[in-house]
Amino acid sequence: MSTPSPPQRQQEEKQSVSLSKKKNQKRKRTKHDPELERLDSLPWNSSLPNEEEEDDTFSLFIGSGDLDGGFLSLEEIDESDYGLDVPGAKKKISNKNSKLKKQKLEEVTEGSREDAEAEPEPEPAEGMAEEKNVKAKKKKKKSKKKKAKAVQQEDESATVIDSKDDEKEQMLYEDEAAAYAEFYAWNELRLHPLLMKSISRLGFKEPTPIQRTCIPAAAHQGKDVIGAAETGSGKTLAFGLPIFQRLLEEREKAANMLEEKGEEAGKYAPKGVLRALIITPTRELTLQITDHLKEFAKDINVRVVPIVGGISAEKQERLLKTRPEVIVGTPGRLWELMSGGEKHLVELHSLSFFVLDEADRMVEAGHFRELQSIIEMLPMTSGTTEGQSQDTQNCVTVSSLSRKKRQTFVFSATLALSADFRKKLKRGSLKSKQSTDGLNSIEILSERAGMKPNAAIVDLTNASILAKNLEESFIECREEDKDAYLYYILSIHGEGRTIVFCTSIAALRHISSILRILGINVSTLHAQMQQRARLKAIDHFRANEHGILVATDVAARGLDIPGVRTVVHYQLPHSAEVYVHRSGRTARASSDGCSIALISPNDSAKFASLCKSFAKESIKHFPLESSYMPEVMKRLSLACQIDKISRKDSQERANKSWLERSAESLELVVENYDSEEERVKNFKQKKASSNHLKKLQQELNGLLSRPLRPKTFSHRYPTAAGVTHLIQHQFEELAKQNGDDNLVLGENKRRKMVVIGQDCVEPLQALRSAGREVHMDVKERVEKRRNAESLRRKRKEEKKRLRDQRRKQKKQSQGRE
Ligand SMILES: Nc1ncnc2c1ncn2[C@@H]1O[C@H](COP(=O)(O)OP(=O)(O)OP(=O)(O)O)[C@@H](O)[C@H]1O
């Protein structure tokens, strides 16, 4: 073995130190810089010089042929380039490093040992000079030995420290590896490491079935996709991840090509161009999808922006000025801006993704025309693109043949509800009959949007379309008793978040007013509300663990709020699709939930046919404890009376103020022509009404100050067992109202302490433990209803006949007289 010379050794030592320094730096960077420095330096370049037309013409890089089939496999991506903690790779690096270190250490120690061994033995001394020489030599030898010893000690301690470091590192990597192993299920989807990083940050252990099926087709085969899967099954990421994957891959290829050419990364980089346009039917859904995608975009430096009505024009302008790559929007506002020539939105030649979420809703009246207009603005995807233009930023001419096709994604939970479309989904063919109604219009729109015939069709809905973990149930009651049953559900089973759906805004106002009088704090959401109020209502609902949202069908689709345990259909929706989407606000992702439909005799046939559309033969009766109903009815009757009086008062006040306001604007004086007597009468009436209102309120407050209890229940045994959240809240309110003194037991006050023994189980639990299945025979129900109607008609006719007969007889007798 050759002995390294001292300078060589120093160099090696330096190398070893710099190696460990680098390692530390890298560790620091990984820890402190999640945005990944290197990625920041990568160019985002959509128009780079074409290899063939290098000099003057440029091809549009995005979606250009250069990147065609440019789906990088994971092998091509070096995770260490991103500073990513991909355990397998790190482990290798770490092993390599420790081996290298070990080898170096061995060399150094061996070298110093050899050095010491190679030292010549001192010759015998001759005279003083010789003695001096010997001394000097001895000194030299001693200091050499000392040095060697010090080096050896240093080396030894370095070895100890490094081996400790290695152990720690090893343990760290093993932990990381274990953590990553949790996300192993994503490996087959070959997603970009940066996307994997977001996935692990969000803790999504495995892809959902729709993601597992759609991502390979969309991201790796570049196919268009039509996707149908149950509500809450993760459809947003099923189209979102392929978009990000392609953007990242293209970015990477662009950087590599530039590197090969030795070009400056930012040389041809234009400002961002629009790459993906995602259209959804409601503002709330738009904002939610934006937030969801932004969570992923955080790590990859892609801008996602919402375009919805209700956002101020200035803010919208500001958002568009950032030239986002991904835009999520509602058709109305999008079209308004596009038809107004908004620059970023009309430069659609670079669009690589066109997505219709909740597609079946989008083709309904109200959206169809705007959507059609937007689609007409899209450039053709097949054939030549001659005459089409050119990137405004860098005068880039689109090379006619090299353009990569735009991908179209169409998603919904209820695409498969139409028998016609279901057949097509099953057949896997989309050849349409060219009609313009119903689901065929989705096909027409998709075709016009450039959907290719070889689109991947993914239908993961089961026969019932509804989410697997959803328990459905119903309560049969009279129309006028719906409020009472709703109050019963919310007060007896008021656990977890609940959404109450109505079809009309009038019904929504009625319910929310009654519930508020009954001391239940509800949020409301309907289409006539201002956007800010709508968002506030959702925030309020989201913030309260046991929140109640009363909403119209504007909240039926897409709203993703965790912890919604119950959906109540106060009124049945107009279609089976809406029923699915409403019910789908609960039992999302892997959680469960229940739906309760309040069914009046008038709803019965409709409900039966709904069940038929979901291939349901039986459905559970929601279990009710009838002993609570007398008290529920009493409270409700008081609340209804209070509501009636308050409405009348506020109506009068509104009318009066309107009259006064109008008179004031016309500079008129409103004279009161009422006589003194009338005025006194009015005054007395008002006073009586206000006294009555006060009395009702007092009575209701008295009832509300104690928890709801069954009629037969003894109130002799105070206990805290079974206290629901609502009761707890009532207690707290009561305590606040009466002050601490009330809690001190006194003869009077003890009567105010009430017995609580009601079920505090949430509706799903109650349903599972006691729900009775009822066979839903549609024919039988329709027949029943028909019979009842014909009986009523016959009775009416009989009555009319008798009346006519009597009238005739009367006339005859008058004539005779
Ligand atoms: N792989 C996953 N693992 C766990 N949770 C996920 C996964 N993918 C998505 N989610 C979560 O599941 C929830 C529902 O996702 P998403 O809103 O995309 O459902 P959806 O199918 O679009 O529902 P809807 O049809 O009602 O609009 C979201 O909160 C989302 O964060």
From TrEMBL:
Domain Helicase ATP-binding residue range list: 216-433
Species name for this entry? Gossypium arboreum
Q: Where is the DEAD-box RNA helicase Q domain?
A: 184-212
Q: Which InterPro entries match?
A: DEAD/DEAH_box_helicase_dom (IPR011545), Helicase_ATP-bd (IPR014001), Helicase_C-like (IPR001650), P-loop_NTPase (IPR027417), RNA-helicase_DEAD-box_CS (IPR000629), RNA_helicase_DEAD_Q_motif (IPR014014)
| Low complexity biased stretches | 59-74
Q: Which reaction does it catalyse?
A: ATP + H2O = ADP + phosphate + H(+)
Q: Which residues form a coiled coil?
A: 666-706
Spell out the residue ranges making up region: Disordered: 1-162, 779-817
Q: What is this protein called?
A: ATP-dependent RNA helicase
- In chain numbering, motif Q motif lies across 184-212
This chain's function reads:
RNA helicase.
Q: What class of enzyme is it?
A: hydrolase
| Matching PANTHER family | RNA HELICASE (PTHR24031)
Keywords attached to this entry: ATP-binding, Coiled coil, Helicase, Hydrolase, Nucleotide-binding, RNA-binding
